Amino acid sequence: MTRKYILLLLIGFLSLSSGSIMAEGQYEVQGDAIRLFNHATTTQLCKLDAPAIYATETYDEAAIIVSGRGYVEKKDLEDCSDNKKIHVHNIPGHVGVLTDVNVEQKLYVALDFVTVQPYTWLATIAKLGTSKNLVSLRGAYIPRQSLSNMKKFSFGGSGDAGSSIISLDGKFVAPNGEVGCEENSYPGVWDILKNERVVTDSSACSSLFGK
Predict the structure, then answer these.
(1) What pLDDT, in 10s, does the model give residues 73-115?
(2) Where in the chain are the domains?
(3) For residues 18 and 53, is the Cβ–Cβ distance under 8 A?
(4) DSSP secondary-structure letter at 140?
(5) Would you give the distance in Å from CA 193 to the centre of its chain?
(6) Which segments within the chain are labelled E, that is strand?
């Protein structure tokens, strides 16, 4: 069974949960629409140009991930109307499952599965609209890497939307969502520009992702 085929099965499995899903008390998925709950008694229904599976807010709070590849920008949702469909942006195909987006810095993280029992992953951090990985560290997806090395360097996690974190300035990423910069943390926190792991104390590590 090919990696591409299993990835499609994983995304298809996520689609089984489509329907009415509440996210963070603010959004409710209704097929090809998202209902916004602005106040306890105020709602607005925004139609999308592609089906939504779930609604998970990105770490920068500027977008909502709605599927394995798709996201919508919150500013578009806030400006929706009855006669206008909100465009669902998609990352390139075959790079994995979308887990975080930084709209301002134009970056995304996608996790590509390696094993399924248990689920382990390799990460792609790329500019929106591209599929070229900006990092080549252990834990990153590297084309033509041997399967044995993929298994060796992959990391655990759910692979759910929101399970990775890009810092607000777009300089750092925690591929599995765990902000840990200790020497033994894995995969740890990555410096995207320097293409290296960050090793520092917990206070300095947390400050990299501060809001």
Answers:
(1) 999 988 888 888 999 999 998 899 999 999 999 999 999 999 8
(2) 3-90, 97-207
(3) yes
(4) B
(5) 19
(6) 20-23, 27-30, 33-39, 42-47, 56-57, 63-65, 70-73, 89-90, 97-102, 107-116, 119-127, 155-156, 165-166, 172-174, 190-191, 196-197
